[in-house]
Structures are given as C-alpha cells and as structure tokens.
Amino acid sequence: MFQTLYNYFWWDRLWLPANLTWAQLQDRDGEIHAKPSDLYITFPLAILLLILRHLFERYVATPIAGLLNIKDKVRLKAAPNPVLEIFYSSSSKHPKQAEVETLSKKCGCTARQVERWFRRRRNQDRPSLLKKFREASWRFTFYLLAFIAGMCVLVDKPWFYDLQKVWEGYPSQNLLPSQYWYYVLELSFYWSLLFSVASDVKRKDFTEQIIHHVATIVLITFSWFTNYIRAGTLVMALHDSSDHLLESAKMFNYAGWKDTCNNLFIVFSVVFFISRLIIFPFWILRCTIIYPLDLYPAFFGYYFFNSMMIVLQCLHMFWAYYILRMAQKFITGKMVKDERSDHDETDNTEEEEKEEVGAPAGGSTKNGPLTNGHPVLNNNHRKVD
C-alpha cells in the first residue's frame, strides 16, 4: 500500500511536463540537479536556527534593547479569581454585558470590577515590548542577510535581467552550490517560523501568517523537486527585499524613535508596493504562467505551482490594506504603529486602580461609600460615567 501511494505521488505526469521523466533530472555529464533528499537537512537546520535565535535574542537583541532604553511596561496583574479565570479560558476573553452581570453575581463583585479584571487579564497575555523588539531584531537580521545573499546569487545570472532565460534549457538546468545553500537556508528559516508560531507574538493576521508560511514552504519545496530553481530564487529574493525594512521600522518604533520609524516605514511602503504589487504580478507571475507554455503544454504541476503563487499575491493585497491604513495615519499626523498588533488596554479612573476583584461590592474609601463601584454623591444621585 505504501509503495503504491509512493508511486502515485511521484508519478511523472503529475509533476513534470509531457515527455519528461524523473530520469532526466538525474545527475549526469557533470550536471547536478536538485533531488528531494537534499531537503532533509532543512529540518535539523530549522532546529539549529531556533537555538541560534534564542542565543541571538538573549545575548544580542536584549543588550541592544537596553542601550535603546526599551523597558517593559509595568502591568497590573488581575487578582486570582477561579470563576473569572475559567470563563476567560473556556468561553471568551471579551464578555458581553449580560455575561459581565452574571459573572459579577457569581463572584460577589461589581460589574466594573469584572470588566477591569478582564482588561488586566488580557494585558497579561499580551507580549511585552522587549519580546516584540527581540523578535523584530531576529527577523530583521535574517531577512537582511537573506536579501544580500539573494542578490549575490542572482546579480550575475542572465535570467535576473531576462526572465525568458529562466526556462532556457529546462529541465536540464545545472544546480549551482550558491542556489543550493540559498534554498536550504530559506526553507529552514520558514520551517523555524512555523515551529515557533505558537510562541511568537500573535497579531490580527495570525491566520494569514500561517497560510503564508505554509504556502512558502510548499512553493520552495515544489520548485526544488521540479527544478524550478531559477524562478524560486527570484521569488525569495523579491520577498526579502522589503521584509527587513518592515522589521527595522518596528525596532525603531519599539525604541521610541518615531521619526526614524516613520521614514523607514515610507521606504518600506514604496518597496513593498513596487515589489509585491507591480514586479511580482506583472513580471514574476508572467514569467511562471505565460513563458512555460512556449515550451510545453500545461500540466498538474504547472497549475499547482501557479496556484500557490496566486495565494501569495492575495496575501500581498491583504497586507497592502494594512499598509494603506498605517500610511493614512502617517499622513494625518498620527503615530505610525503596526495595525496588526493588539495594544494594552488601560483602566479608566483612579478609583479603579484601588479596587480589586473579590472585594465586597460595597466598601468605603476616604470619599465615602461605594455603590456599584462608584462613590455615592451627597444629593443621593449616582455619579454617571
């Protein structure tokens, strides 16, 4: 059964054009071709990158954060309350008003105290400023080095300037050592991102990030199997061209260097729109969708590869929406921040800072008795929020 599934999976007609076989992608006459077994090394390398990331964040990013005076915000912790904790974990982190009233009766506190407890509890789960800076520093370092490596791999190649040469001699295209290591390191990095996604800073586009990582891994792996190496290196280098700019803007934003952050954001936005919304759809997609048909008829692998490319383009358009929102805030003079991030919620009044969930609903302060968490005024009318 396993052998049958294996044979169907590696069926020539599934992944290769008509009249081409896997035998034609075997090494011969001094030519080296990509082989699926070459990618086994990416799994241990992904683990190694995670270890390297931990060391980098601890011994490089953290001292840099200290030099930039990046400090974690002191957050008030929610008082232990089993009733509210169970609801928070199993039902909702944002209870509706009716649920707040019900919870207040169960735990013997006011509705405002319950609302404040949920605010503080949500803030506890949000990543610290230092964690965000560490993560941005690591990604900035890798993306910058990867972009430089990509340029070194591509700048002297004829298909970098003439995309029709991407398919010249396909599928018998010799695999260069620089292409091998560029592929292996990029794929290892995206595996490491997928492995660490549960512990990384979670943003509003969490689902889209997962889709992006999976689509990228599938694209890199498939292009390696079918010797789409030239097209793959172009796609990877194009994406790395703007990613390091975004991460650097985040770093300066966390450090409070708003002018530098805004300037980097402008540069990032220009590079992003040119690379992802102009070059990618009108040059790269044209290269992978139209040019191959001059050499062979469409087949399953052709449709599969370009479907993943279109998924990436849809994600580019999705993120362009967030970039435009941030650009609008920048133009209107508001502080530029990552629209995908959750932000701390603050307690509203000084009285709230003094109250704790679990305290009696009615208590006393220097200003007099409290009713439903508010001071009772002398004229017997309650203070209105």
Quick overview:
The protein is mostly helical and 385 residues long.
Task: Please explain how this structure is put together.
By secondary structure, this protein is mainly alpha-helical. It has helices at 2-9, 12-15, 42-67, 82-90, 97-107, 111-125, 129-154, 177-195, 206-225, 229-255, 258-289, 300-331, 350-354, and strands at residues 364-365, 368-371, 374-375. A hairpin with a 2-residue loop joins strand 2 and strand 3 (374-375). The chain starts with a helix and ends in a 10-residue tail after the last strand.
**Number of helical segments with 4 or more residues:** 13
Which descriptor suits the 3D outline?
Answer: elongated
**Class based on secondary structure composition and strand pairing:** mainly alpha
The first-to-last residue Cα distance is 70 Å
Strand content: under 5%
Beta strand count: 3
Helix fraction? 55-70%
> Radius of gyration from the CA trace?
27 Å
N to C succession of SSEs? HHHHHHHHHHHHHEEE
Strand order of the largest sheet: 1-2-3
Major sheet description? 3 strands, antiparallel
Give the mean pLDDT: 81
The low-pLDDT segments are 348-356, 358-385
